[in-house]
Amino acid sequence: MLDQIADVGKDLKRGGYSRHGYNKPELELRHWFVEQAVRRGLNVETDRNGNLWAWWGERGDNALITGSHLDSVPGGGAFDGPLGVTSALEAVDLLQAKGFKPARPFAITVFAEEEGGRFGVACLGSRLLAGAISPEKALALKDPDGITLAEAMKAAGYDPDLVGRDERALKRIGQFVELHVEQGRGLTVPVGVASSILAHGRWRFTFAGEGNHAGATLIEDRRDPMLPASQLVLAARKAARGGGRATVGRLVPNPGGTNVIASTVDVWLDARDTDDARTRAMVAEISEAAHQAAKEEGCELRITEESYGDTVHFDSGLRDDIAGALGGVPALPTGAGHDAGILAAHVPTAMLFVRNPTGVSHAPEEFAEQADVDEGVKALAATIEHLGS
Ligand code: HGY
Ligand code: MN
Ligand code: MN
Ligand code: MN
């Protein structure tokens, strides 16, 4: 099934896929998912936050939900997100073929803008569903072209005025299980379950100096924000110790001319660690270094926390129950964030991982062996049968 969507959203410039919330390729994938669901006799609805729910039978309470996302990071791989959705559809095929019928309400979900690849906040659809971000803040988020989430949702036919915590939809979820390609190399067997997710936040550092001419401006007359921006990148690496992960993957000088000293530089920091205190301490150390570097260059610095989620420890009861039903599979921590990480604070949640032989993710090289993918589908089907009987 991944082959069916292999041509959707290819990024010819960067390589990989650039499928972002409500952009053309992502809308195409939504349409593809609805077709696939309807073909299986599932009843599809879109909730007020742009998330899709494909119900097998009646919608109802104490539902067993599985799903993931279809959007990608810029230049992302084919598996992160879509593998969870295609495996859920394939698991339904397996179960329908053997005459299984869920004894409780069951649905496959597709969450909106999980990567934050367009609007900058990860897990936007599940955060809105759970009330983990305010509608005002979410609707005002702008994409790189200055289009707000409200405008993008409207253009896609959704009513942005409806977004917000969806108590009713949350209450319907009895248990949520997300299958995902592993991002890292912890698995030595095809399938595992998740034990925890790192604490994870994103901060925006805006350095402001004085735009000027690259040739006509003496060094001593400069206030070049690119200098403290560069110091921030180095400080992030220096502060990431003992398992902490601090990353700068996006640095945008404005105006960005080769012969122009930038007037401002925006730098986004992605920081993660095993607990809240360690993550905050790492970010504090990096921020201190950034303020120091800005001062030395006569630049201003404004830091904005754009999103943050504390460490997620998955419900060990559900995790061990699933691992047992699968004949005993390993539990492993993940450094990547997921919609399951947002929902875990509200409903019993578990994750299944499918082995990634290279561990590479958020890159076109992301890959999983067909044999492992098949094991993942069988494991998800067995989990649905185990929990849904
Ligand atoms: O950033 C993450 O870890 C997730 O893939 N959104
Ligand atoms: Mn991802
Ligand atoms: Mn993902
Ligand atoms: Mn000139």
Automatic annotation (TrEMBL):
<dbReference type="InterPro" id="IPR010158">
    <property type="entry name" value="Amidase_Cbmase"/>
</dbReference>
<dbReference type="InterPro" id="IPR002933">
    <property type="entry name" value="Peptidase_M20"/>
</dbReference>
<protein>
    <submittedName>
        <fullName>Allantoate amidohydrolase</fullName>
    </submittedName>
</protein>
<comment type="similarity">
    <text>Belongs to the peptidase M20 family.</text>
</comment>
<dbReference type="Pfam" id="PF01546">
    <property type="entry name" value="Peptidase_M20"/>
</dbReference>
<keyword id="KW-0378">Hydrolase</keyword>
<dbReference type="InterPro" id="IPR036264">
    <property type="entry name" value="Bact_exopeptidase_dim_dom"/>
</dbReference>
